[in-house]
Specification:
Blueprint: H1 6-14, E1 25-32, E2 35-42, H2 47-51, H3 56-71, E3 75-82
Parallel strand pairs: 2-3
Antiparallel strand pairs: 1-2
Length: about 80
């Protein structure tokens, strides 16, 4: 099975949700103890849209990314941040 580019997958999930899609940046942070850590940063005005009410949108993004990771027998940790200047 082909490796999944998790930062691109997460960015593709986030971009339709935000008003500033050009500011969406997802990057691979580290791989330790079998967990791939991804940092997703968005425009400060869009952080609430990405997290959602009671974290539901962020949870849905994590669920979809986790489903892709399970197929490759991997584990993901996604951190959502605002990319303030």
């Amino acid at each position: 099975m082909a490796d999944v580019n998790y930062p691109n997958l997460i960015a593709d999930l986030i971009k339709p949700l935000v008003t500033h899609p050009e500011d969406v940046k997802c990057s691979f942070v580290s791989f330790e103890n079998g967990v791939t850590k991804i940092k997703a940063s968005v425009h400060p005005d869009d952080l609430g849209r990405v997290i959602g009410k009671k974290g539901r949108v962020a949870g849905a993004i994590r669920t979809i990314a986790h489903a892709a990771a399970i197929r490759n027998k991997q584990s993901l940790d996604i951190e959502f941040l605002s990319n303030e200047d």
